[in-house]
Amino acid sequence: MAEDRDHFIADMVHELERAAAVANWRRPDSVVDERPGWFQITTPSSKGRWHNRVVESVMTREEAPRRISEVIAHYRALGVDFAWRVGPSAAPSDLGEILANHGMVPTELVGMAAQVSRVSVSIEPRITVERVGLHNVVDYVHASAAGWNNDPATAASLLADMQRTLADPDNDCQFFVAYCDGEPAGSGALWPVSARSEYFLGSSVAPKFRGLGVYRALVAARITEMRSRGVPLATIWAMQDTSAPICQRLGFEALCKARIYAWPSALA
Fold first, then answer.
1. Cα–Cα distance between 200 and 146 in angstroms, integer?
2. pLDDT number for residue 180
3. Hey, is 31 helix, strand or coil?
4. Where in this chain does the record put each N-acetyltransferase domain (predicted)?
5. Phi, psi at 10, each rounded to 5°
6. What is the β-pairing status of strands 127-131 and 105-115?
7. Nearest C-alpha neighbor of 99 from the set 81, 84, 78
8. In this predicted model, what pLDDT tens digit does every residue of 27-44 receive, in sequence order?
């Protein structure tokens, strides 16, 4: 039994690591540097960290300082914000400390997974959730911008990205907008990772609607969608102090941790 449990955890951590690499927003000018032990995305047209980041990095202790300096110089030359994800497979072991010494600021994440068949979420009657299309994408952006405290320029950029994504016939990511008493209140996405797992991405709730069950409703909508297609496993990298406790109460299990180190705009 212990061996089965260890195998399950290792398998789910692999799915979570894979999700982190797969679920990355891209634009037509995005450039991906992917090789064994390394995954990096650069998008010159975007100032945002979600388009400019290192997602996977496995380095020797000797090469890490040089590589980190090169990456920082690369993004600074473009004048963009960027982030560096330090997950379970990252190396060297003190990578986070090195990034912090460069002034990068960490956010704690919890890697979680749930068997779709075991998740049951009730929805408050005043809350509804809709799939996002071109007809209601403005509502999605409104809720997302409020939830993430985006400025108008960032919201406008998100709208353009969303419109392009929704019009793309090859897009297989699904987006959801939650309404509370008819007002856009929360947003979230569902990203296919493999035949057996899908990833909960970008969930947020506008401040005025927090604590009302909006996040739970977004989880329920995505679980229902996955169940309808027979996808058995849901994964999420949840923020440790906000979404992780909610997900745990709904049936997600904490399996591992990661940190996202962000380059502060003031240092760019």
1. 19
2. 99
3. strand
4. 127-268
5. -60, -40
6. unpaired
7. 84
8. 999 999 999 999 999 999
Residue type, 185: A
Evaluate whether 27 touches 43 at the Cβ level (below 8 Å).
Answer: yes
**Closest among 233, 208, 229, 206 to 218, alpha carbons compared:** 206
Residue 198: closest CA among 246, 170, 236 = 236
- CA of residue 33 relative to chain centroid, distance: 19
171-216 pLDDT, tens per residue? 999 999 999 999 999 999 999 999 999 999 989 999 999 999 999 9
DSSP string covering 35-76, please?
ETTEEEEE-TT---TTTSEEEEEB--TTTHHHHHHHHHHHHH
Give the start-end residues of each E strand in 116-173.
127-131
Q: Which residues contact 164 (CB under 8 A, 6 or more apart)?
A: 27
CA-CA distance, 236 to 214, in Å (whole number)?
17
* pLDDT score of 3 more than 80: no
Q: What whole-number distance in Å separates Cα of residue 50 and Cα of residue 37? A: 20
What single-letter amino acid sits at 147?
G
Q: Which residues pair with 236 in a beta bridge?
A: 112, 200
Contacts of 24 (CB under 8 A, 6+ apart): 41, 50, 53, 55
Of 12, 104, 127, whose CA–CA distance to 57 is shortest? 104
Q: Please, what are the domains in the chain?
A: 2-108+260-267 (no CATH), 115-257 (3.40.630.30)
How far is it, in rounded angstroms, from Cα 92 to Cα 80?
A: 26
**CB-based contacts of 48: which residues, under 8 Å, 6+ apart?**
80, 81, 154, 157
Kindly report whether the global pTM for this prediction surpasses the value 0.90. yes
In this structure, are residues 227 and 263 in contact, taking their beta carbons and an 8 Å threshold? no
